[in-house]
Amino acid sequence: MELSTLTPDLPQLLMDMGVHYDPERLAAALSSRPTELAARSVQVAASLGGFITRVLADLASGSIESNAPLRARQLRTVLSGLGPSFVKTGQALSARPDLLPKAYLDSLSELQDRLPSFPSSIAFEVMQEELGRPIDEVYSEITPEPVAAASLGQVYKARLRSTGEQVAVKVQRPGIGENIAIDMVLLRRLVAVIDDNIPQVSQPLVPLVDEFAARLFAELDYVQEGKSAEKFAKLYSHVPRVRVPTIKWEATSRRVITMEWIDGIKLTDEKAMTAAGLDIVDFVTVGIECTLRQLLEAGFFHADPHPGNLLATTAGDLVYLDFGMMSCAPESARYAIIAHVVHLVNRDYYAMCLDYYTLDFMDPSVDTTPIAPALAAFFDDVLSDSVSQLNFRAIVDGLGGVLFQYPFRSLTVLEGLALTANPNYKLIAAAYPYMARRLLTDPAPELRASFEDLILVNSRMRWSRLENLFEEGSKSQDYDPAQLWLLAEWVCSEGGRPVRKPLAGELVRLVDATISEAVRQQLHERTGDAALAARLVPRQPEESMAADRARLLWAVLTSRAGQAVPMPQLSPGLFGLPGPWEVQQYLQKLQAALSGSAPRLQAVFEKPGAQELLADVQWGLLQRFAARGIKFVSGLSDGGSGTSSSAAALQPQKP
């Protein structure tokens, strides 16, 4: 490799391609180099042609499925031999379950983009050319050989002369931009032939190649990578234990980037992690929440997830490296993905089919409802496990095309890392707290709609799911209970109207269970007859569970006072059974006690929606106790000869 062999006309074009990819302009620029294009075409055709011939033979013999694992490994070998462009193409395909079968996805996900390092003498020449001055003026010391090498460049450890800081210097492999340019032109021609001649392909491939090429050319611009690193740091450095190296702009240009040196161990180095006393699973959990934030919160994420780009420090920080390939998820897609997960949990497969339109994966003219039976056939078995037992890889494989262009593949990579340390690790259990926290605390209307979908079924509240959201959401790294007031305020707003009726019904059930227990206890104390008390106020199904929930909810709502606030006592009515007046008084006592312990709740109670909710609760309790009054009188009548004595024992005591 010699610097003199580099073409002087392409650097500016390559820089332009990283900002605005124009395949026609690129092809025109390379048309003056027919010899290089022809030579590379022969090499690519020979390598891929042999593989395609074997696949066609499998198709003819009916062994396409049985030979898929073997062919997948062969494809991985072919792409590795064709160099960086095709290695990265294979890595991109490994995240496309809509294009390739599972055997190919698994095999291509193992592709490595490492190449032997190139001579340091050339690397130092590139640094000097890019930085515009001798390297000893920039760095007071630098390792004679690279400390790491990959397909696009290699890294040296150095010390900045201006500050004395230790830094990492990444220098781009000379000629790599020209090689990628040739390969992208050839690859685009190849898939254009496929698009024109193979109608069985589910979607046009040329736009996919153009999107991939644009990202690959952007990765060649280290200035853009530095800006991406700073944006990533601004968005996610506040996440506990997440760290991003600082970019040193005085020593950064298009093909050289200098950043803060951070000592750490790659998460893929299991032996070194163990020797340092670091738990892989612990760092994976941090990475899971950060990945979910990338996708579902800010929408700015790694488009080329790679476990080798994650370092663990002895201080407990997870360090992110390599910001060459980044992408953005639009806000609509972020909310749609969360809705899609909720529809999955609810087994609402037809709603999942409609999500394809919201996510812009399908044209509205295409009917997606035939997909629903296939989703049901797959997920009815998968979802039989509890949340803590679900395997995330199975979820991703089942969802297929819905998740292909977002970084869920990075979550499967993290799950794989964790499984090396703990075979029983379940990523869903680790990821669910973040999802629960978002559903509880995010005021966005789209997420409030998903919240409704999750906790309501046939206009009835699934109390266990609401409890589970609170329990899991509290485990999230930045869970703030104060944000739950936003949920309470929303419930009492116009937008929360669909939730209020079901919530009122549940509150009636909880308060009724609490009152029933209290009345039964009072009757027992006054008559000394537990059987009579049980007959007069029969125990309802799941009453004990409802009463326990009521006490737990009370404790949660009054915990802000800094001390336990006892629940108000129920005033007994005629014969010990509370009537309309006692029920109304009891609700007023509850409201007053809650307002006193949590002043913000008083403001919520003053909202029209809260008054509507309280009125529904009062009316529901009155209906229940009217029915209980009838049963109470019947119970007295059924006492036979003991009716008079029982009634006398139940008479209110005179002062």
What this model shows, in words?
α13 packs across α14 (331-345). The protein has 655 residues and is of the alpha+beta class. The chain folds into 4 domains: 8-111 and 178-218, no CATH class; 119-172 and 221-261, Phosphorylase Kinase, domain 1; 331-406 and 426-479, no CATH class; 497-633, no CATH class. Strands 1, 2, 3, 4 and 6 form a 5-stranded antiparallel sheet that branches. The protein has a 4-stranded mixed sheet with strand order 5-10-9-7. The protein has a two-stranded antiparallel sheet with strand order 8-11. The chain is elongated, with a radius of gyration of 33 Å. The longest helix is centred in the C-terminal third of the chain and has 31 residues, at 497-527. Helix content is 59%, strand content 7%.
Output the keywords.
Phosphorylase Kinase, domain 1; 29 helices; four-stranded mixed beta sheet; 13 strands; alpha+beta; 7% strand; 655 residues; five-stranded antiparallel beta sheet
Summarize the helices and strands and which ones pair or pack.
Blueprint lengths: L10 H9 L3 H8 L3 H28 L6 H14 L2 H10 L8 H7 L11 H12 L3 H4 E4 L5 E2 L3 E8 L5 E7 L3 H22 L8 H14 L2 H15 L5 E2 L12 E5 L4 E2 L3 H6 L4 H19 L1 E3 L7 E3 L5 E3 L5 E3 L2 H15 L3 H10 L12 H12 L9 H8 L8 H14 L5 H15 L3 H11 E2 L2 E2 L1 H11 L10 H8 L5 H31 L2 H7 L6 H16 L21 H18 L1 H7 L2 H30 L5 H8 L5
Parallel strand pairs: 5-10
Antiparallel strand pairs: 1-3, 2-3, 3-4, 4-6, 7-9, 8-11, 9-10, 12-13
Helix pairs in contact: 1-10, 2-9, 3-4, 4-5, 4-6, 9-10, 13-14, 13-18, 13-19, 14-15, 14-20, 15-16, 16-17, 19-21, 23-24, 23-25, 23-28, 26-27, 26-28
